[in-house]
Predict the structure.
Amino acid sequence: MIAMRITMKNNKYIILYITIISLIILHGLFDKYIKIDSTTILLLLLIILLPYFHLVKKIKYGDFEAEISSEEVKDIAEKVENIPPDKEDLKENENILDIKKLGESDPQLALAKIRIEIEKHLRILLNIYIPKNLRHEHKLSLSKAVESLRKREIIEPEMAEVLRDVINVANRAIHGESISINNSTKLIDTSVRLLIWLEQIIVNHALRSAKTELIEKEELDKYLNAKYKVTTITPYVDGIQKNIYTMNKAEIDAFTEGYNQYAEFIVEVKKI
């Protein structure tokens, strides 16, 4: 089934009227005289029905559907609700808040950004949990990446299913299928929950190796006021570059803001 929203301006009506009338005339001239047959009747019906086209919400044809339906979005949301709530929610970061705001004005672009965020989180999980010789990261599609993580029990089967659904809908929206702002907003809210859970999985991996100990305030002040040697690697195409910076805490905070957007990565932080 296909669903297409039809909205027409007055000038488009005029063009369509002229086109249809011209087709009727040409159809008659081609046969050397005008006769009433099924083609003529169909064209006349189009003229009669044309003023009512703005009332049409969907046109269905075969198995093709060009509008993402409310039922589909609702089904995805319900699947997310059924995922066991065994994870602590993280706060929505600025990037997620920007996507939610964008969804109010440009649903397709917002869903494209959601897809990018999902892909980024899945690639991080692949890098963390799957050995490089088994990863084939440049060959795996997103759906295969989800399946690979599911098989290794890194993400639950329920989450894998919803991720595939969201990726599918986002791909369709990116390639031109229409989606209402209301449906887009619901789908983005659902996707945000998935992103937060994926972030939690990433954070939990880092926390497994964490060791904690209590320190005195004097020691804390030393760390806050210290200088640090920060060593990074930048894998340029024409050569790998090692970078060494000297920074204080405030400079490190500013330096690492949005740091995962760059190819450069930190390999060592040492107090000096």
